[in-house]
Amino acid sequence: MNGTPRLTLTGPVLDAPNAAELADFYRRLLGWEAEEDEPDWVTLRSPEGAARLSFQTEPDYVRPVWPTEDGAQRMMAHLDIEVDDLDAAREHAVRTGAVVADFQPQDHVRVCLDPAGHPFCLWLRG
Question: The domain that contains 91 carries what CATH number?
Fold first, then answer.
C-alpha cells in the first residue's frame, strides 16, 4: 500500500428547502427508488445500482438563477442526463414538475430547472 486510502465517490448531494419533495421529483423523473429515506436526507439509487443521488434539507437554501446574473445566487453544479429522445424527455420532465429554462445554449441540450431551481441538462448524444 502506498499510503493513499481508498476513496469512493458515492454521488452528488443536492440541497433543497425540503429533501423529500426534491427527491420525489427526481424519483419520478429518473424512475429510481429510495435507498435511504430520513426526514432531512434521501438517497436515490439507479436500478443498476451504479449511481446514487442524495438530497439534503437546507433551511437557508437560496434558489440559484439560470443563466447567471451578477449579484444573484449562482449554481454550483448541475446534472447531465443523457436521453434517447430530447423532445419526449423534455415533456416527461415538465410533467414531473420541471420548468424548461428560457435560455438554451445548445441545440442538442435542453436545460430544465427542478422544483428547487437546480438546473439540469437533458442531452442527446450526437
Answer: 3.10.180.10
